[in-house]
Amino acid sequence: MRIVLITGISGSGKSVALNVLEDLGYYCVDNLPPALLPHLVSTLVGEGLRSLAVAVDARSAESLATLPTDVAHLREEGHDVRVMFLTANTHSLVARFSETRRSHPLSHELRPGQNPAARRTLIECILEERERLSAIEQLGHVVDTSELSANKLRAWVKDLVELEHAPLTLFFESFAFKLGVPMDADFVFDVRALPNPYYDLSLRPLTGRDAPVIEFLDAQPSAGEMLEDIRAFVEKWLPSFKTDNRSYLTVALGCTGGQHRSVYIAEKLAAYFHASERVVIRHREQ
User: What pLDDT sits at residue 165?
Assistant: First the structure.
């Protein structure tokens, strides 16, 4: 059975991801206590179902501890299990809860000896949830949704689940430093030292995927040198991540606005590694 396990911080887009999977034909279960996962899989396999998506949150605090073991056992049984951990910075989470006017799931929990009238604040709930989920954050692929629209998140989720089984998938992601570094990045490279096409008025409205910008940066010796340095670094260390049984490796490339230089470098790296690796390219600001 193909199983996609969605977990992460409340407000980071788990419902959006689950809806995408439902549209793709997955049997979806929301807020499942982790302890019930093996039994659910066994039952659905007996009924002939082949694709399952399950969302798990921090309310099942006690059984979360067994989740890594349960996932390992399911994989040993031959199931294709993929885990997505969605997160976002606290500022974005607070803004989302404010916009939707929904309460945080942990706000209804009472701490031992606590007066029912004295519940956790939203910030306290977010911090508590991060603490509870910290042990399983690296169980799968981390996706930072802080600067993502719902439509972009839907596209990224589809990219993740449509990947065929492979030892490791390389993600090259461009971003703007002014909007923050992606929390899901394994490596971050700063390409702001390169000449900036933004200052050429004819290039300003274009992106690093447009021919005039590519020609501009191709003509810069520093761009070629930086591209080669990053390529050599990734190529040198990629085998170590494969032997460490990693499923995903995210290489983030940042410039000021996430439009020209970072996009150019990300596209060049993706094109190079595409010949030998499973590659996904993402441009956060586009």
Answer: 55
8 is in an annotated binding site: yes
**Annotated binding-site residue? 48:** no
Residue 70 is labelled as binding a ligand: no
In whole angstroms, what separates CA 170 from the centre of its chain?
12
Q: According to the annotation, is 10 in a ligand binding site?
A: yes
- Please check if 13 is assigned to a binding site: yes
60 among annotated binding-site residues: yes
Question: Is 12 labelled as part of a ligand binding site?
Answer: yes
Rounded to a whole number of angstroms, the CA Rg of the chain reads: 21
The structure's pTM equals 0.73
Find out whether 63 is annotated in a ligand binding site: no
What torsion do the CA atoms of 231, 237, 242, 245 make, to the nearest 10 degrees? -130
Is position 113 annotated in a ligand binding site?
Answer: no
pLDDT tens-place string over residues 235-277: 999 999 888 767 789 999 999 999 999 999 999 999 999 999 9
Q: Is 154 annotated as a binding residue?
A: no
Per the annotation, does 15 bind a ligand?
Answer: yes
Residue 30 among known ligand-binding residues: no
In this predicted model, what pLDDT tens digit does every residue of 72-101 receive, in sequence order? 999 999 999 989 999 999 999 999 998 888
